[in-house]
Specification:
By secondary structure, the protein is an alpha/beta fold. The chain folds into three domains: 13-55 and 172-228, Elongation Factor Tu (Ef-tu), domain 3, CATH 2.40.30; 60-164, NADPH-cytochrome p450 Reductase, Chain A, domain 3; 242-385, 3-Layer(aba) Sandwich (Rossmann fold). 37% of the residues lie in helices and 20% in strands. It has helices at residues 60-70, 91-98, 106-115, 119-129, 134-142, 146-152, 160-164, 207-215, 252-263, 279-282, 286-294, 315-321, 323-331, 345-361, 365-377; strands spanning 13-22, 32-38, 51-54, 77-78, 89-90, 173-176, 187-193, 196-199, 202-205, 223-228, 242-245, 270-276, 300-305, 335-340, 381-385. It has a six-stranded antiparallel beta sheet with strand order 6-3-10-1-2-7, with helices on one face. It has a five-stranded parallel beta sheet with strand order 13-12-11-14-15, with helices on both faces. Helix 1 runs parallel beside helix 6 (146-152), helix 3 runs antiparallel to helix 4 and helix 14 packs across helix 15 (365-377). The longest helix is centred in the C-terminal third of the chain and has 17 residues, at 345-361. The radius of gyration is 24 Å and the shape is globular. It starts with 12 loop residues before the first strand and ends with a strand. The model has no long low-confidence stretch (mean pLDDT 97). It binds flavin-adenine dinucleotide and NADP nicotinamide-adenine-dinucleotide phosphate. The site of flavin-adenine dinucleotide (FAD) has 21 residues, from strand 6, strand 7, strand 8 and helix 8.
Length: 386
């Protein structure tokens, strides 16, 4: 626990990155990176299953583009309403590290419509605000960031204070820690999918994943971090078996779990389900899993490389392929863990688990639901999904 540390979310520690490397091999469509962050000297500690919180800085090029559109130097004092500050800060600081440059809302379109002096801009904005255009406005905003709006409606001429009052706070991002303190007491490892995409013909970036990947100098103590403690974690009783389902970056905490259980001498079995696009390029930490399998530390490894064949194969398909064995582990008291994508994967894995319990246990729907409820109550079914 970090109780002895002077550092927390409200007073983040300025950490340095000691290692940043690509996990995907050349030819991959993915950009997943491994980071090692030093917590030396912070007094911070963590356990397997915890996450690291990171406060990012936005891209300078985007901040400069907004300043140019506002015809501002960046030195202008502002007091963004969302930040509730005791004293103003500079516009540049607000845009660089305190406010989100994404996700404009209807409110900014209303303000621009009031302030635009060009008849063409005024009418385009008014058209977006009529009740029948609700869906059009939704897609329009989804495709745009604040910088687009300043460029597309220059006659509205917002002041720096008006602009920042429409922006939301830049929140810290959490990352599941991919190392165990028993193996790495001073460092945390992270497994991060770097977010890059195109909307409205512009290249966009994820604020925090590209801050770590592109904008932080390795070795410089500049990254504000805190440890976010979690109830997610391996069983206290090392004799218990664990089943871990972690496709993509969902693999991160399970690398921590296995390291932890090896270091603590846990005797329970470890079964991992991993999936990603291609075996040749996207088998994250393959060398660790292979070594642990060979040493008998990882009991089973089932992989689902979704794009290596015509039909998609996912981790839940591998669970179904091994339904009898999975049921026998569960009946024997195994803990079941899921980490990764919340929108689709975690739901589909939950459905597969339900089906396996019903079929293999000979239970009706109510019986299977009760079994899962009890698993959750006993903390034997835990999820860390995002
Ligand atoms: C408990 C927890 C643990 C987590 N662990 C990990 C982890 O181990 N590894 C990891 O990589 N992440 C993890 N995450 C997610 C992480 O916190 C961030 O949400 C993620 O890195 C994106 O942040 P960002 O600042 O880079 O992107 P943001 O600036 O937040 O941008 C992401 C946003 O961009 C938009 N967007 C993205 N792609 C597109 C697209 N194609 N088209 C249109 N819009 C798009 C969406 O609005 C999306 O919400 C975790 C989250 C939680 C809550
Ligand atoms: N917006 C979305 O819809 C969405 C979905 C997934 C992830 N993400 C985000 O994208 C980032 C990177 O993701 P990641 O690298 O962690 O991996 P990921 O994109 O979640 O992909 C990992 C593996 O899971 C597969 N997958 C896709 N849908 C699945 C499902 N319903 N059930 C089981 N497996 C499924 C993928 O297959 P295929 O890609 O071949 O289908 C891939 O093989 C994360 O931040 C994540 O939250 C967003």
């Amino acid at each position: 626990m970090s109780d002895d540390s002077a550092y927390s979310k409200d007073r983040p520690f300025l950490a340095h990155i000691t290692q940043s490397r690509m996990l995907n091999k050349p030819g991959s469509a993915k950009e997943t990176r491994h980071f090692e962050v030093s917590l030396a000297g912070s007094g911070l500690s963590y356990k397997a299953g915890d996450s690291l919180g990171v406060f990012a800085e936005n891209r300078k090029v985007e901040v400069d583009e907004i300043l140019a559109a506002l015809e501002a130097s960046g030195d202008e004092p502002v007091s963004p309403v969302m930040l509730k500050l005791p004293a103003p800060i500079s516009l540049r600081e607000a845009l660089s590290s305190r406010l989100a440059l994404k996700s404009p809302t209807r409110k900014v379109i209303e303000t621009l419509a009031e302030r635009a002096t060009s008849p063409d801009e005024k009418s385009r904005l008014a058209n977006l605000l009529v009740p029948e255009a609700k869906d059009v406005l939704g897609s329009f905003l989804f495709e745009r960031e604040f910088v687009d709006l300043l460029a597309e409606f220059p006659s509205a001429r917002l002041t720096p204070q008006e602009l920042v009052d429409h922006m939301r706070k830049l929140m810290p991002r959490l990352y599941s820690i991919a190392s165990s303190p028993r193996a790495h007491p001073q460092d945390v490892h992270l497994t991060i999918a770097v977010v890059r995409y195109v909307t409205n013909h512009r290249e966009r970036v994820g604020a925090c994943s590209t801050y770590l990947a592109d904008r932080v100098a390795v070795g410089q103590p500049t990254v504000p971090v805190f440890v976010s403690h979690s109830h997610f974690g391996p069983p206290d009783d090392g004799a218990k078996d664990v089943i871990m389902v972690g496709p993509g970056t969902g693999i991160a905490p399970f690398r921590a779990f296995v390291q932890d259980r090896i270091a603590s001498g846990a005797t329970g079995r470890n079964w991992l389900f991993f999936g990603d696009q291609h075996r040749a390029t996207d088998f994250l930490y393959e060398e660790d899993w292979s070594a642990w399998l060979a040493a008998g530390r990882l009991t089973r490894l089932d992989t689902a490389f979704s794009r290596d064949q015509l039909l998609k194969v996912y981790v839940q398909d591998r669970m179904r392929d091994n339904a009898a064995e999975l049921w026998s582990w569960l009946k024997g008291g195994a803990y079941f863990y899921v980490c990764g994508d919340a929108k689709r994967m975690a739901k589909d894995v939950d459905t597969a688990l339900f089906d396996i319990i019903a079929q293999q246990g000979g239970l009706d729907a109510a019986g299977a639901a009760d079994f899962i409820k009890q698993l959750k109550k006993d903390r034997r079914y835990q999820r860390d999904v995002y």
